[in-house]
Each structure stands twice: as structure tokens, then as C-alpha cells.
Amino acid sequence: MNNMTKHSGDLPFRKMHGLGNDFVVVDTRHGPDLINEKTAKAIGNRYFGVGFDQLVVLRESEVADLDVEFWNSDGSRANACGNASRCIGQIIMDETGKSDVTFRTGHAILTASDAGDGLVSVNMGLPQLDWESVPLAHAVEDLTNLPLDGAPGAVGMGNPHLVHVVDDVESVDLRAIGPGLERHPLYPERTNVEFIQILDRETIRMRVWERGGEITLACGSGACAVAVIAHLKGLTERKVTVHLDGGPLVLDWRDDGVWMTGPTAHVFDGVISAAFLDGV
Description:
The protein has about 280 residues and is an alpha+beta fold. Helices cover about 20% and strands about 40% of the residues. The protein has 2 domains: about 10-125 and about 265-280, Diaminopimelate Epimerase, Chain A, domain 1 (Roll); about 155-255, Diaminopimelate Epimerase, Chain A, domain 1. The chain has a 17-stranded mixed beta sheet that branches.
């Protein structure tokens, strides 16, 4: 029997990435809707499942080209994912032939556009710069200088972020300190954790520990947060190039939101077996 033969209950998916920030995309418009906390966690396991930084579920929408749902690899939900948003934009543009498309996430209706040369831009919306929206556990007078070691900054981009400015980002032991910072009491919903090094007023080096996951090669919403905090601290201009472990993203904080531009990649299509899903 052909091992790729599809059976009832199988779940088709698409594997994509943006700068190594990788995603499993499940399209419920053309297949079953089987995603929940347990299945997301099982599929996200890189040893016993498929593996991803985020799982992306596509659904029909009455208000945009698509409705989108994000899941972390630990089975928790996320309202935003920047690199996945660029991948989604590419999917819709390939399907429709449009150069500008919209999709609704748990955070907002986002707009993506063809930036040329294989690049996709997405407007991730305006940053959330009040403590309740980030959210933080209590009021903080200055979100750019939290009362924590190193005076990091806090910002929401549809998900929470904690941004530390350091002299040498490569020397930070993310695996050792990331989990604790993710669960800091100041962040009731946990947080993504970024460490950045300012190279010049238009260039930033960034590394990230993602909420509900681990060290990742890139984080689009994190890069947006970094661009916002770096500018508010007076360290950079509003348009910067952020160099992540997986490559560069261009961030431009405009009046209508933080625009992010970078590449996307469609790696392969696959099928998760009904037998695997039945065992979850």
C-alpha cells in the first residue's frame, strides 16, 4: 500500500517558515477541523509529532479574506504571530492573485501585501502601550523601564513582550533564564522574552525565548515589540532592521501600525494520520 494514501480522519497540513520560525498550517476550509489543546500539543512535539513553533488554523471569514487561529507547541493559544502572519498573507495572495489581503486573528484584522523580491509585508497593528493591555499584573508608571533587573521594556503586540537591552546578546543564556522570565509574576498571561543589542540607530541584533515554546530562530511580533521599545528608549529610529538567529526583518513603526517585511517559505505538504490523532 502507498504510505501516502489518505484515509478518512487524516489531517492534511502545510509546513511553512519565516526565517526558520516554523509553522504547521491546517486549512479547515478544505479539510476537517480537529485542532484542540491536546492535538495541538501532540502535533507540536518534534520527536513524536510533526513539530512547530506555532500551529496555524485557517477558517472561512465573513469580515476578511480569512479567519486565523494560533496555537503554541505546549497546547496554549496565542492571539498573534508575526512571521506566521506573513506566511498566511502569502497563502492568500497565491490563492487570490491579490497584492493586498486581510485576515482576522484573535488580536485584530491584519493587512498583508506583496513587497516584491519574494518578500511579504504585514501590518501588525498599533503597539499596546498601557499596562492593562500588555497585560501586566499591576500598574507600572513607565513601560519602557520596568522595575526589574536591567530596566527592560514591556509592550503588547496582540501578545505580551518583555524586552531587555544588553551589551552582548550572544552571551545571554536564554535557555537558563527564559522560562523564569516568561513566567514572571508581573505577566499574568506569561510573556515572550527578547534580548537585544543595539548595533546602530537603524540596526538591532535580537534573540528570543517564545512564550509557550522555547528558543526560536525568529519571532515576528517580538521583532515588532523590539522596534517599538528601542525607539521609545531613544536608541533607534522608527524604521530598523532586526537581525534574528534565522535572518533579518525590516520593521517600520508608522502611524497606522508596525509594518514587518521579510521572506516566507513553503517547505512541504503532508498528512497527519488518523491513527496518530486517535491516539492523542
